[in-house]
Amino acid sequence: MIDLDANSTTRPLPEVVDAVRDALEASWANPSSVHRAGQEARRAVELARQRLADLIGVRARELVLCGSGTESIQMAIRGSLPTVRAAQASGTPRVLVTSDVEHAAVRDLAEQLERDEGVDVRRLPVPAGGLVDAGAVAGVLAGVLADVDPSSVVVSVQWANNETGVIQPAERIGAICRERGVRFHCDATQWVGKMAGGGREPGLAAWCDLLTFSPHKLHGPKGTGCLWVRRGVALRAVSPGAQELGRRGGTENVPGIAGAGAAARSALAFVGDPANLERGAALRDRFERAVLEACPGAVVNGAGPSGAAGAGGEPLERLWTTTNIGFPRLEGEALLVLLSERGVSASAGAACSSGSLEPSPVLLAMGVPAEVAHGSVRFSISRLTTEDEVDRAAAIVGECVRRLSRGMA
């Protein structure tokens, strides 16, 4: 199987598998126990925490280890908003500012908070191409802060889109929030381990308050997630307990955390070499060109060519991992099934929603026509992808599209 679904998850590296196995065999004790075996497990957890912190250039003590990227998003957003009782007592509404092109973990949470808890959700405009206008953030906050204390407001915008690879102006948005005393959460699940970023002080701390990522997106194991909390940022525990400095209860998943640390160590070396990122972008472009040549009428959904400008003047760029291609008048699900039968894995939008027959809400929010969104497929590569694989996959995509097109003629 040619894996072009790396944004969904990535194959664990051999050293990751070894780290998980070693932890299962040698560090299986409870890391909260004071005996020697427990402290050996604790050492494995803290070593992995340090490696994960090094990957994004922060202090290890600021990193909360949890069960998934989705959980870390819940911790960041729910933990930042005042409780319902506190909001009622102060008479100040709670406000979440976000966009309709976020991952479902944010979009669905926003809908739930709005529907069930009365949170005032303000959705940022998303011009064609899918780039959030940073200038609009300032405008929305100006209106909100006229009536609401900054401590009751949270802004959540991703660093890179999981469906199109569009890189958002997260640093600029974070700076706007910092100037106004508003907390900023960044979902960096598709960024961390794939792009250089963070760095030592001031690094993330200069513009971000809370950042989430998931090691299984960077060749680590599933069942782990990370939340960075900037020093000095108070976070209400969503799942209280003694672990993780009281920020998240529950016995730590030592094998998963050990594997995550091994993946982080490898990822730090990978993103530290610009040649790796250039090679990845060249592979993506090679695949894209071959598919567009083989499939007249197909279009790339996203920010467009490097160097173009968005509505707010921001540069339009995409992750090297990702291309989202629309095949008008075809059904994306039918194409995915046919591709799978021919040995190519891809997805229609996010993997967690690819079983839906509805077009991607992210693409529709970007202004992609429904007939194109219905026939859109996300292809995503990893650092393990080869030239031979993208060449063979592009040829197979062309054959499958032609077969489906004949069936509709």
For the largest beta-sheet, the strand count, sense and barrel status come to: 7 strands, mixed
Mean pLDDT rating: 92
Overall strand count: 12
Q: What's the shape? A: globular
**Tally of separate helices:** 13
Walk across the major sheet and give the strand order: 2-8-7-6-5-3-4
Give me the Rg, rounded. 21 Å
Q: Which features would summarize this protein structure in a list?
A:
409 residues; alpha/beta; 3-stranded antiparallel beta sheet; 13 helices; globular
Characterise this structure:
It is a single chain. With 409 residues, the chain is of the alpha/beta class. Helices cover 41% and strands 12% of the residues. The protein contains 13 helices and twelve strands. The strands form three sheets. A seven-stranded mixed beta sheet has the order 2-8-7-6-5-3-4, sandwiched between helices. The protein is globular.
Give the helix/strand layout.
Elements: E1 2-3, H1 14-26, H2 36-56, E2 63-66, H3 69-80, H4 84-90, E3 95-99, H5 104-117, E4 120-124, H6 134-144, E5 153-156, H7 170-179, E6 183-187, E7 210-213, E8 225-229, H8 254-271, H9 274-294, E9 299-300, E10 322-326, H10 332-341, E11 344-345, H11 361-365, H12 370-374, E12 376-380, H13 387-408
Parallel strand pairs: 1-11, 3-4, 3-5, 5-6, 6-7
Antiparallel strand pairs: 2-8, 7-8, 9-10, 10-12
Helix pairs in contact: 1-8, 2-8, 6-7, 9-13, 10-13
